[in-house]
């Protein structure tokens, strides 16, 4: 048979092996290819694996048990984390609670047990009232627990203000009791010794600002304004001694009914004295307005008045050094009113009864019920002449024309009382007043330096001659008829202290005008005859 062709048929497309992912191209062989290997007719060749770039995706392989996390484990971890956070939150809250309690214990609950005794049963609120130094006492804490009210120690107490302890509501106070009838049942004396706690009344101790008292408080302090506590009667009204619940002694001055000195004078005095503070002026403690009743509460000056010690019956003779101390102290107090207060203050009722004395006989000027303001330039003209007969300045007695020189004249009359021991008016001399009796004696004493006819005979010539000369010169200068020729009170103070020459009292005057009679001439704005006529007219009134 003829030889077959050496060229083998091309393999089928299905039987061809898969191409390599990275096929290598080989050049075609020129040699005759070898015939394919014989196949077994019974065993078909397996199909080749699908090509990698075929569009049929391969099924996913099952997860391996060695690298996966089970759902139960995840849930357990989450639950554990939440539990840990909850425990930490509870611990934090507990720590905060303990710290807060510890701070509260250190700041609020400082009173040692047992608590001190409570206030008196008649306290208007029935319980203790305190001012807390930092925070108010708690009532309920943040968890709803009721906290007890702590009781501070007694030393932490201070008098509450009128807003803290209002007085209980009560009907309007009754009218004042009669002054001449004693009353022992309207109130009790609260001396403060039976009650260890301070009283609830505001501002009851000296040194506080002025306080407003109720009528009931002052009635209790004065034992119902009893006659036993009546200190005297001044131009403003009756004065009673009182004892406040803390033991402080006061002088309660009540406006005299029908005196003509009503609300205007009262309000003026409260306003004035509340701003005046001086060693030789009586201090105002408080006041009371109850209906038509008005009262002033002053510090109590224990040793009575200059009038009591100088003119009182059965009193021992006041020695000269004591008289000098009183003259100098009262001059300083009056100089403060005239020259250191703004606006200046005129007393208008300087007299021995308004000079209060302590146990060292230091003088305090009292009774500002007649005080008035005036400006630096204008002269105040009063519609009513007020004052005490025998002390009134000539120009004031005639016309009501008022300057600080009116007080200077009254002070000169008081110096004449200290020098002579005589009252401003009396039957011991034929003249109408002490001033008219003393004028010729003052002139003679200033000329020859002899004071025997002028000086109080009870002194028995036991006085310092230089001090007497200074006081006589001051008295003569103060009682000059011409107001503009009288010295200022500061000049009087320096002259009494010996810090200036007596000739300084004649400052601004021409030679010859310093004599006590110098103002009697035509140049005088007020002469002696007019003065005597005015004094007689006032005495008849």
Concise summary:
Residues 1-21, 33-63, 168-179 have a biased composition (Pro residues). With 541 residues, this protein is α+β, with helices and mostly antiparallel strands. The protein is built from eleven helices and twelve strands.
Describe this structure in words.
This protein is an alpha+beta fold and 541 residues long. Among the domains are: 167-300, Phosphorylase Kinase, domain 1, CATH 3.30.200.20; 306-540, Transferase(Phosphotransferase) domain 1 (Transferase(Phosphotransferase), domain 1, Orthogonal Bundle). The protein has eleven helices and twelve strands. The strands form four sheets. Strands 1-5-6-4-3-2 form a six-stranded mixed sheet, with helices on both faces. Helix 5 runs antiparallel to helix 7 (404-420), helix 7 packs antiparallel against helix 9 (465-478) and helix 8 crosses helix 9. The longest helix has 37 residues, at 71-107.
């Amino acid at each position: 048979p003829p030889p077959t062709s050496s060229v083998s048929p091309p393999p089928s497309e299905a039987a061809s092996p898969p191409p390599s992912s990275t096929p290598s191209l080989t050049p075609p062989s020129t040699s005759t290819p070898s015939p394919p290997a014989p196949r077994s007719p019974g065993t078909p060749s397996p199909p080749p694996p699908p090509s990698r770039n075929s569009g049929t995706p391969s099924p996913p392989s099952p997860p391996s048990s060695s690298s996966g996390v089970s759902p139960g484990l995840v849930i357990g971890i989450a639950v554990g984390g939440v539990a840990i956070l909850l425990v930490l939150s509870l611990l934090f809250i507990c720590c905060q609670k303990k710290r807060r309690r510890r701070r509260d214990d250190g700041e609020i609950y400082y009173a040692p047990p047992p608590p001190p005794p409570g206030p008196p049963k008649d306290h208007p609120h029935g319980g203790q009232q305190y001012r807390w130094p930092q925070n108010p006492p708690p009532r309920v804490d943040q968890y709803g627990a009721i906290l007890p009210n702590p009781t501070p120690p007694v030393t932490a107490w201070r008098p509450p203000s009128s807003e803290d302890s209002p007085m209980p509501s009560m009907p309007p106070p009754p009218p004042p009791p009669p002054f001449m009838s004693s009353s022992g049942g309207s109130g009790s004396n609260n001396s403060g010794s039976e009650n260890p706690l301070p009283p609830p009344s505001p501002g009851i101790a000296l040194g506080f600002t002025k306080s407003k008292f109720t009528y009931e408080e002052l009635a209790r302090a004065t034992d119902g304004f009893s006659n036993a506590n009546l200190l005297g009667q001044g131009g403003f009204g009756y004065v009673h001694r009182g004892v406040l619940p803390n033991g402080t002694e006061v002088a309660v001055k009540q406006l005299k009914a029908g005196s003509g000195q009503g609300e205007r004078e009262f309000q003026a005095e409260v306003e004035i004295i509340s701003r005046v503070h001086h060693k030789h002026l009586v201090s105002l403690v408080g006041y009371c307005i109850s209906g038509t009743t008005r009262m002033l509460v002053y510090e109590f000056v224990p040793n009575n008045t200059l009038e009591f010690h100088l003119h009182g019956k059965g009193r021992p003779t006041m020695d000269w050094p004591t008289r000098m101390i009183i003259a100098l102290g009262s001059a300083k107090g009056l100089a403060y009113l005239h020259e250191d207060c703004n606006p200046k203050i005129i007393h208008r009722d300087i007299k021995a009864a308004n000079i209060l004395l302590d146990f060292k006989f230091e003088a305090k000027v009292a009774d500002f019920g007649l005080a008035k303001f005036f400006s630096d330039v204008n002269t105040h003209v009063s519609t009513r002449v007020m004052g005490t007969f025998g002390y009134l300045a000539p120009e004031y007695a005639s016309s009501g024309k008022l300057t600080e020189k009116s007080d200077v004249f009254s002070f000169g009359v008081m110096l004449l009382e200290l020098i002579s021991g005589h009252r401003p008016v009396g039957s011991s001399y034929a003249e109408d007043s002490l001033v008219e009796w003393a004028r010729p004696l003052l002139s003679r004493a200033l000329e020859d330096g002899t004071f025997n006819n002028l000086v109080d005979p009870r002194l028995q010539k036991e006085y310092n001659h230089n001090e007497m000369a200074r006081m006589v010169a001051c008295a003569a200068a103060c009682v000059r008829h011409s107001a503009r020729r009288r010295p200022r009170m500061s000049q009087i103070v320096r002259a009494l202290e010996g810090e200036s020459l007596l000739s300084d009292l004649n400052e601004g005057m021409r030679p010859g005008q310093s004599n006590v009679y110098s103002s009697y001439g035509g140049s005088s704005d007020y002469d002696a005859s007019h003065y005597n006529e005015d004094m007689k007219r006032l005495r008849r009134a």
